[in-house]
Design brief:
Mean pLDDT: 98
Number of domains: 2
Shape: globular
Bound molecules: 5-S-methyl-1-O-phosphono-5-thio-D-ribulose
Strand content: 15-25%
Keywords: Amino-acid biosynthesis, Isomerase, Methionine biosynthesis
Radius of gyration: 20 Å
CATH architecture of the largest domain: 3-Layer(aba) Sandwich
Organism: Gluconacetobacter johannae
Strand order of the largest sheet: 8-7-6-9-12-17-18
Distance between the termini: 35 Å
CATH topology of the largest domain: Rossmann fold
EC number: 5.3.1.23
CATH class of the largest domain: Alpha Beta
Pathway: Amino-acid biosynthesis; L-methionine biosynthesis via salvage pathway; L-methionine from S-methyl-5-thio-alpha-D-ribose 1-phosphate: step 1/6
Pfam families: IF-2B
Oligomer: single chain
């Protein structure tokens, strides 16, 4: 996607700068567009843990490059396995991270150590190219959902889409998942408007989704997370589209905390609730999302404090709660498949069921 008129991906390699890895520091957006240069595996692990990079597909891609950086230091078997395990453990819920590391190891294990660095950069590059292509394809398959609503209504008024967290291009290598159909609809001249859940506690909606949509000229309104049910009751939402960090083989969906409540409100109000994902987000090894997906528990400080920019232009964190109040911070929840209208994948749309997924991905369903 473009920033100004310049096309960017959310991760890239600079061969002229020692094959370093470059990302946007997402903890500084929307106030500052800072590029981080990562030159060793520890920096990559830190960037993922602290959410300088985030979003399921993007952390997989960046971790893949992290392994390439690690192999430059030591490409022997034992070091490679140790560093791969360290990177895979940086965040627990998004399956793309484990998927990317396993794919890297499948390519690298048969090679001699001397050949591994070049192969690792090559494989990480392939992961990035494929992610960008898959997300573009998700956009093409999701677009008709928006077109149908616009055509059915026929009044030219905006199609109102609610989204949660950030599943845009900055959360992937390019295009995004939930936002890809929205970008395509907007680019084709459809009248779309996005309700952006602020997404406490880290405000990925207010900070990142609003920044992305604004940069692309897509009309949007940020709302408090608790507003979604009210908006749906008053027919102000035509469609919900969210991303996901892990989908089970039966169609349960783990995504940013609060997604489940939006799905409940959507069901109660007859609003279609769609989930957009590349197949790299499907965990074919698990069936029951509620019991089998590890939910990341993050520091309570993210709940008791909030970061923003002051009128003087300083980025500051202020405290919201009385000293001594404890906070719990589960970062994801699981929406049962029965509440999901359907899944938008790079191969098309399907029901959120084992049969639906298996029909689209027979070679992986087994
Ligand atoms: C295309 S990204 C899909 C998900 O990763 C996204 O919705 C999400 O929940 C991100 O969580 P985060 O904790 O910000 O990494």
């Amino acid at each position: 996607m473009k920033i100004g008129n310049v096309p960017y991906r959310s991760v890239w390699v600079d061969q002229d700068d020692g094959w370093s890895i470059h990302i946007f520091d997402q903890t500084r957006l929307p106030w500052n567009l800072d590029v981080l240069r990562l030159t060793d595996m520890e920096q990559v692990a830190h960037a993922i843990r602290t959410m300088q990079v985030r979003g399921a597909p993007l952390i997989g891609a960046v971790a893949a490059y992290g392994l390439a950086l690690a192999l430059r230091v030591d490409a022997a078997d034992a070091a490679m396995e140790r560093d791969a395990a360290l990177l895979a453990a940086t965040r627990p819920t998004a399956i793309n991270l484990r998927w990317a590391i396993e794919r890297m190891l499948d390519r690298l294990r048969p090679l001699a150590p001397a050949d591994r660095v070049a192969a690792a950069y090559d494989e990480a590059g392939r992961i990035c190219d494929e992610d960008a292509a898959q997300n573009e394809s998700i956009g093409r398959h999701g677009l008709p959902l928006i077109e149908e609503i616009a055509a059915r209504r026929g009044d030219g008024k905006p199609v109102n889409i609610l989204t949660h967290c950030n599943a845009g291009w900055i959360a992937t290598v390019d295009w995004g998942t939930a936002l890809a159909p929205i970008y395509m609809a907007h680019d084709r001249g459809l009248n779309v408007h996005v309700w952006v859940d602020e997404t406490r506690p880290r405000n990925q909606g207010a900070a990142l989704t609003a920044w992305e949509l604004g940069s692309h000229g897509v009309p949007h309104t940020v709302v408090a997370d608790n507003a979604g049910g009210h908006l749906m009751q008053h027919r102000a939402v035509d469609l919900v589209i969210v991303g996901t960090d892990r989908v089970t083989r039966a169609g349960d969906v783990a995504n940013k905390i609060g997604t489940y409540l939006k799905a409940l409100a959507a069901r109660d109000n007859g609003v279609p609730f769609w989930v957009a994902l590349p197949s790299t987000t499907i965990d074919w090894r698990v069936r029951d999302g509620l019991t089998e997906i590890p939910i990341e528990e993050r520091n309570g400080d993210e709940v008791t404090a909030i970061t923003g920019r002051t009128a003087a232009g300083l980025i500051e964190t202020v405290h919201l709660t009385p000293p001594g109040s404890r906070a719990a911070n589960p970062a994801f929840d699981v929406t049962p498949a029965r509440l999901v209208t359907g899944l938008i994948t790079e191969r098309g749309c399907c029901e959120a069921t084992g049969a639906g997924l298996a029909a689209l991905f027979p070679e992986q369903a087994g």
